[in-house]
Design the sequence.
């Protein structure tokens, strides 16, 4: 039987935010002085995901990009556990507690197997850096944004190392258009990264620095990094109150106010929703949700509910410290211009400011 938690709180409404990633952290921070907010996350920190590949080649970056929840969310309750169930009465966590809510925000984008504490996460980046530094040849498995950005970081910071990138699909960055894929392939090839498309590495057969693809190619590498896409963090929702609101790809279907279809007091934001998986959208969803919760909590006396309209696919992928590839609604460009927008600071300062923190 789950223990009932957090039922105190005077006249303020109870908002439970599940997931302290890009979207959930912003909601928790923005509502902490308006409602009794509980933030549920299996780790004690928020992480700027798009800085993670830079942190692997420059571990000090993680000091700015891995942020304790308590640093931006000081006036609420942080629960370090995973949510495992949602019922009419509240959210149940893995450690057996129940958190009742008036309003619920689901923001469980992707569940990664990362350490629980910030200190351990920063140490993990240091280990990855040492692994890169001590290897002459590196195999990267996966040609989505993570694999491509990691290849770019290593190629620029360690040009003497042999980097091989193996991707199962027929083109890199399949989540955006073919033009961006071509420009990325050209850039990586010019930086002497060997790119193998349409191939999968058989990790089971790897031994003594020799890797084989299922097509019989062999790759010599001192180490490898697995950069394959992670499934959305929604499997735990199937047997819950929200199970009927998942689409056939396991994403929560939301209306234009960011409310989960069929549930007036439940919102979903970020990668868990049926929209493109991008952090700027998770932020946009969070901002609409915060506005709407404020309206609803004031008894609906304020303005009408805010709406979010899905836009065209936009993406920026960094290629090392100065260059990048960008897909905007009407054009795709690569080189220094997208590099200037993203690749220098990787939006770390901007994201920290959104959470009310100093940019450095
Ligand atoms: C390499 C890389 C580069 C990227 N570059 C960009 C970019 O330049 N621009 C851009 O806009 N986007 C970029 N993205 C995409 C962006 O990171 C995601 O869209 C964004 O993180 C989604 O935010 P979110 O809040 O939905 O989920 P996440 O940030 O994934 O957060 C999910 C949170 O939920 C928690 N969680 C999971 N399961 C549970 C559970 N059961 N109970 C409680 N908590 C749970 C997790 O611990 C995590 O804290 C990039 C992604 C990657 C990997």
Sequence:
């Amino acid at each position: 039987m789950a223990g009932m938690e957090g039922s105190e709180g005077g006249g303020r409404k109870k908002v439970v935010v599940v997931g302290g990633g890009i979207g959930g952290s912003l909601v928790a921070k923005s509502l902490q002085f308006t409602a009794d907010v509980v933030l549920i996350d299996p780790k004690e920190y928020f992480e700027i995901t798009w800085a993670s590949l830079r942190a692997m080649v420059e571990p000090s970056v993680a000091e700015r990009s891995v942020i304790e929840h308590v640093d931006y969310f000081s006036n609420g309750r942080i629960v370090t556990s995973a949510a495992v169930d949602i019922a009419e009465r509240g959210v149940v966590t893995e450690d057996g507690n129940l958190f009742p809510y008036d309003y619920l925000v689901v923001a469980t984008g992707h569940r990664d197997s990362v350490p629980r504490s910030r200190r351990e996460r920063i140490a993990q980046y240091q280990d990855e850096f040492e692994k890169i530094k001590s290897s002459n040849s590196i195999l990267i498995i996966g040609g989505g944004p993570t694999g491509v950005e990691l290849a770019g970081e290593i190629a620029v910071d360690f040009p003497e190392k042999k980097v091989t990138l193996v991707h199962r699909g027929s083109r890199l960055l399949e989540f955006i258009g073919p033009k961006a894929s071509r420009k990325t392939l050209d850039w990586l090839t010019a930086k002497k990264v060997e790119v193998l498309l349409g191939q999968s590495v058989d990790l089971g057969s790897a031994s003594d620095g020799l890797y084989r693809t299922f097509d019989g190619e062999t790759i010599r590498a001192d180490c490898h990094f697995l950069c394959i896409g992670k499934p959305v963090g929604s499997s735990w929702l199937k047997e819950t109150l929200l199970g009927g609101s998942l689409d056939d790809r396991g994403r929560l279907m939301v209306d234009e106010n960011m409310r989960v279809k069929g549930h007036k007091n439940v919102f979903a934001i970020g990668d868990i929703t049926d929209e493109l998986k991008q952090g700027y959208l998770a932020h946009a969803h969070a901002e609409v949700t915060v506005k709407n919760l404020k309206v609803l909590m004031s008894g609906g006396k304020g303005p009408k509910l805010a709406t979010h309209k899905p836009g065209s696919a936009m993406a920026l992928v960094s290629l090392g410290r100065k260059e990048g590839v960008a897909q905007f609604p009407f054009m795709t460009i690569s080189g220094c211009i997208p590099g200037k927008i993203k690749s220098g600071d990787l939006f770390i300062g901007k994201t920290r400011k959104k959470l009310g923190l100093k940019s450095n």
